[in-house]
Amino acid sequence: MATALPxxxxxxxxxxxxxxxxxxxxxxxxAFHSYDHPPPPGPFGATETLILSAAYKHxxxxxxxxxxxxxxxxxxxxxxxxxxxxxxxAFSLIRYHxxxxxxxxxxxxxxxxQGEDAPVGVGAKVTxxxxxxxxxxxxxxxxxxxxxxxxxxxSHAPASLKELAMLSDxxxxxxxDTAVDPSWYTKRATLSMIYSSSELFMTNDHSPDYVxxxxxLKRRLGEVQSVGGALGAIGQWVGFTASAGINVLRSKxxxx
Amino acid sequence: MSPTLCIAKSMRxxxxxxxxxxxxxxxxxxxxSPSEQGSKKLKTLTKEQREYLSSALxxxxxxxxxxxxxxxAQTPPITNRHPHLRPLMSHMYEQxxxxxRTFNGxxxxxxxxxxxxxxxxxxxxxGLGWGTAVMGREAAMACTEAVETEIGGHYxxxxxxxLEMITTWKQEGYDVGSExxxxxxxxxxxxxxxxxxxxxAVEHDAKKAExxxxxxxxxxxxxxxxxxxxERV
Lengths: 256, 233
Ligand SMILES: [Fe+2]
Ligand SMILES: [Fe+2]
Fold this sequence. Notes:
Number of domains of chain B: 1
Shape of chain B: elongated
Bound molecules: fe (ii) ion
Structural class of chain A: mainly alpha
CATH topology of the largest domain in chain A: Tetracycline Repressor, domain 2
Largest interface: A-B, 44 and 52 residues
Oligomer: heterodimer
């Protein structure tokens, strides 16, 4: 059946079956989580998932790059032409990391929240989940500064920020926070800031088991509680992240 | 044109045929037609449906928040001058507080972003409640009359929309989950309670407020504006 298709149609179709609406996909997943109805399709098509999951294994060695995508495509049984089916290129691979690691948190949380030294209370659970998510960067942390430079590009920044917002939402939700008042916003904004600055810190942390990152994270979370809310954390975050982020971007050749 | 065909084709062109079967199998599991899903055949909510449901829960949360604040602000001035209205005021307040708890729970459960205009609605609802209460019992009741008229119509519109969703699913041969059916029940119950408030207000001389036509029209326009904004922000 497939062989009956003329070549040109097949190629055109291959390109158009995946519309360039990745941002919309991510966006729409926030709206109304149903427990009855089958979930909406994820942000990646079947072929994309195939290529990306294979390419992801090459990230520790080759980074979030076209090289990793090509190797992944080959592993998946597709030749080099196939990565062009991923319109966002290397950014797709970054998004794949963000997306899969965010979803993985739910399963991990049931382990974290069991046992004798399980965190008690929403605050402790947020800390534990945030740390767990940071540790999911372990295998790729030496490639993460390059990834941050790609994420900061104007065409990718909205999708990157959206993923960050969804990670914060996931953590507060899994931690069992039920507030739906204005603190819903400040909590998510604050955690987004703390997570991203901790992640940036981690890219330069060479201490064993990232103890320095762990201390950094706990200091930031502690400040939010002691300084009395988001304002202190925002000032802190803007200060640290702006200077550290600019340094990272400059070191990657951005002219800013 | 199905992606399966196209990708299978491009695979055939670009690399060894041996890997094709695995990939085609992987691709074909993506679709969920009613016949493929065991006993419960529910259709995936479309993006539009999920956005509609989110915005409906969000605007309802905002509305019930406003309602509790209106009654909270109205109660002291009204019951000071008319102690016999105390049971009615507290009965209506209790019902509004229960409505708010219902929608707060649903917002959390379905992971919907709450209204971003929370502080604005708080200030405006408190101002409206207090302002009408100091104008007198009739004005306070006219306020309830106007608000509940708008809110009753607003809940009716939501119920109609959900019933339409349900009808379409049934026509297409899908089942209807308890989630949406229960939501319709909840909206009906709350709508009925809002209309009760409307009746109470009219019984207590809402129509005698001066100038009734101006007061109710201004408040109803305000409600429509607030609903419009809450659906979006
Ligand atoms: Fe109500
Ligand atoms: Fe009411």
